[in-house]
Each structure stands twice: as structure tokens, then as C-alpha cells.
Design brief:
The two termini are 25 Å apart. This protein is an alpha+beta fold. An eight-stranded antiparallel β-sheet has the order 3-4-5-9-10-8-7-6. Strands 12-11-14-16-15-13-17 form a seven-stranded mixed β-sheet. The N terminus is likely disordered. The protein has two domains: 195 residues, Phosphatidylinositol Phosphate Kinase II Beta, CATH 3.30.800; 156 residues, 2-Layer Sandwich (Phosphatidylinositol Phosphate Kinase Iibeta, Chain: A, domain 2), CATH 3.30.810. Helix 3 packs parallel to helix 5. It is globular. The chain is 31% helix and 25% strand. The chain is built from nine helices and 17 strands.
């Protein structure tokens, strides 16, 4: 996810910037992020956009929306945005992306359109800021913290359009998959500029405190834990996660299968997000120092919430160029982020094969044969 260290954890904003003021801190950010409509008072504009999009989502999920218009070379549902707070309306266009495919994905997950509509549209959306991400994406969440709205670039939309059928089938065949559940995509166009959104389940629902964003790389993968709540691979260098034998075996297998699915579609640069909770769905585990000597009194009490995110980045010409720029330079002394999908997949799986362990392994006790990573 390339978190920059600031984010909202369990509904409370971390990082020193208020939700109300953090999303668009400059006119350039307003123009780029919200369809290019320059306004004074980003908070009012953002609120207007949220409400307008909730109305459009409500119509889509309730089956009310049928009329389509053609604007700026695109087909979709025309609607109006109050851009100034003074009843000065701007034409806008709402387009569902892969609506039928995402409907099937929600059905397979046991989520009805009615329940999904109610979750997304009946309460105000909350903001947790572009400062949370290097990409500058918009991040909103539902009030119950179960679903997240994220703005994404065109290349991620194109990737999902290419893989959505296989993605849905994979989730149907692999209900234990850690791939984040993307449940809806749409785009909104105003003043001839477009912003794409996806809606996904929040993999950290029910977690609190620190969060780990892990890739199995070392390039730019450390943050100051006194300042940031989202930590990275190098913050975990001397630690590991401890699970029961059964859970550890299950997790390593699932991560391997998920990574191989992404590799098969030419995808790389994804992360595993891990948070800590004390109830709900998840895996019983704890975080310990690898050289900790006293393991007898160690209790595995936390419920670890985790999921694979940022999984729509393909091995593009831009990534190939970055690889050849980094590999002979910083790649000589660290593991770089930018690697071909097969190498990224193998490294990702091996990293969690090492970092996910058991009490028996830490104690040096003999164990049954380990499964191969690849």
C-alpha cells in the first residue's frame, strides 16, 4: 500500500493531520484528485462529492438506475454536483465498472446488494487522508470501518478489468484467500476529468495500535516507530510472528497460492498488511524477538488481522525501466521493490516462510517435515 506512516487505525486518525483538512492541502491536489473541479473550500466540495456518489451507488445497487447519457466521450449516468455550496451545479457522469462481475463476487461472498447498499449509503463516509499514501490516493471509509473507498489510476482499472473474472473464480475456489476483497469499481467524470474508485473490505477491521506493511524487501522499508503507527519490513528485522503449527502451515500455503495467482497475471509490488486485534476473525498469534530466550511463559493472545493489498500493479515498461535503474545501483546492497512478477512472488513467499514461525521452532524442538515453498 506504500503507506507513508500516517493512517487511521480502528477509526481514529494517526499522524497529526485532522481528517477534515488532510485530503486536499493545495489547489493542485484538489484539481488532480477530484475530477479537476477547482473550488474554494475543499471540505464542502468533498462532502458534496461523497453524498452525490452515495446517491449514485444507491441507485446502482437498488436497480433504479437505467437511463444512460453520453458526455465527454463516455457513457454513464448523468448527475449534478454542487461545487460551491451556492447551488451552482456542475454536470458529472457516473459509470459502473464491471458491474456484473462484481455483483457475482459479492453474491459468492454471501453479500446481498441490499446489505451492501445499506453499508455504503446510509451513513456519512469518513476521510482518512491522502497523507496516508505515497500515491496521493483519496481514502474514505464507512462509519463502521468495514469498507474502504480508494481512488486508483487508470492502469489499475485496466488490470482489474483484465483479471476480474479470474479473480472472482479464484476467490470462489479459495475462500481462505488473503487477497483483499474488491467489491465494486466505478468512475466519476466532471469537467472532462475522471477519477476512478474501488470499494474494498477493510482487512484491518477490529484492529488497533500498530500495523505492519510487509513486502519482503528492504528498499525504503523502515520508519520511525516513535512517529508512525504503520511499520515496515526493516522495523521487523529482528522479530517474527508466532502461530500454532496448524495456523502457520495454513498461512504459508495460502500466501503461496495467492502470490502465485498474482504472478500468473503479471502482477507485482503488493503488500501483506498485518494488524493486531483481540476478537473477531483472524489468526491467533503474537510478535516476538527472534533471539528471545524465555519462551516458556509466552502466550499467543492477539488476533492478527491481515490481507494482501495493492494487487493491481503489473510489470509494465515503467517498472522494467525502474528495475534496470535500481538493480545495478541500490540493488547491490538491498532488496529492491521493483522485481519481475516471478521473482517478486518467490521472494514474498519465502519472506513469510521465515517470518511466520511456531513456538516449537523458536525453542529448537524437532518438528514434522516442512512443506516446500515453491
Amino acid at each position: 500500500m506504500e503507506w507513508n506512516g500516517t493512517r487511521e487505525v480502528n477509526g481514529s486518525f494517526k499522524g497529526g493531520t485532522s481528517p477534515e483538512s488532510s485530503v486536499f492541502d493545495s489547489s493542485q491536489e484538489k484539481d488532480r484528485a477530484l475530477c479537476g473541479c477547482g473550488v474554494s473550500g475543499a471540505g464542502d466540495w468533498e462532502t458534496s462529492l461523497k453524498l452525490a456518489l452515495q446517491r449514485q451507488i444507491n441507485d446502482s445497487l437498488s436497480g433504479k438506475a437505467t437511463k444512460r447519457s453520453w458526455l465527454w466521450g463516455r457513457a454513464g449516468r448523468e448527475f449534478s454536483l454542487d461545487t460551491t455550496g451556492r447551488q451552482d451545479y456542475t454536470k458529472a457522469l457516473f459509470e459502473d465498472i464491471c458491474a456484473d462481475e462484481f455483483h457475482k463476487i459479492r453474491q459468492a461472498a454471501g453479500l446481498s446488494d441490499e446489505n451492501f447498499r445499506e453499508a455504503l449509503c446510509t451513513r456519512p463516509l469518513r476521510t482518512f487522508g491522502t497523507s496516508a499514501s505515497k500515491s496521493g490516493s483519496i481514502f474514505w471509509r464507512t462509519e463502521d470501518n468495514v469498507y474502504i473507498f480508494k481512488s486508483i489510476p487508470d492502469f489499475e482499472v485496466e488490470c482489474m478489468q483484465d483479471i476480474v473474472s479470474d479473480y472472482g473464480q479464484y476467490l470462489d475456489d479459495s475462500p481462505d484467500s488473503l487477497l483483499c476483497r474488491i467489491l465494486m469499481m466505478f468512475r466519476v467524470t466532471a469537467d472532462e476529468k475522471t477519477t476512478n474508485f474501488l470499494v474494498m473490505q477493510n482487512v484491518l477491521t477490529g484492529s488497533s495500535g500498530k500495523v505492519y506493511d510487509l513486502k519482503g524487501t528492504t528498499e525504503d522499508r523502515w520508519v520511525d516507530p516513535e512517529v508512525y503507527t504503520v511499520l515496515k519490513d526493516n522495523n521487523l528485522a529482528s522479530q517474527c510472528f508466532v502461530f500454532s503449527k496448524e495456523d502457520r502451515h495454513h498461512l504459508v500455503r495460502v500466501i503461496r497460492d495467492d502470490a502465485e495467482f498474482l504472478e500468473s497475471h503479471g502482477i507485482m509490488d503488493y503488500s501483506l498488511i498485518v494488524g493486531f486485534g483481540n476478537r473477531g476473525d483472524g489468526f491467533r498469534g503474537t510478535l516476538v524477538d527472534e533471539d528471545q530466550s524465555d519462551m516458556d511463559d509466552l502466550e499467543v493472545e492477539s488476533v492478527l488481522k491481515m490481507g494482501i493489498v495493492d494487487m493491481l500493479q503489473r510489470w509494465t515498461a515503467k517498472k522494467v525501466a525502474a528495475f534496470w535503474l535500481k538493480k545495478p545501483t541500490i540493488g547491490c546492497c538491498m532488496e529492491i521493490d521493483t522485481e519481475p512478477p516471478a521473482i517478486y512472488c518467490n521472494r514474498f513467499v519465502k519472506y513469510f516462510f521465515r517470518k511466520f514461525t511456531t513456538l516449537e521452532s523458536l525453542r529448537g524442538e524437532p518438528s514434522s517435515s516442512e512443506s516446500n515453498v515453491r
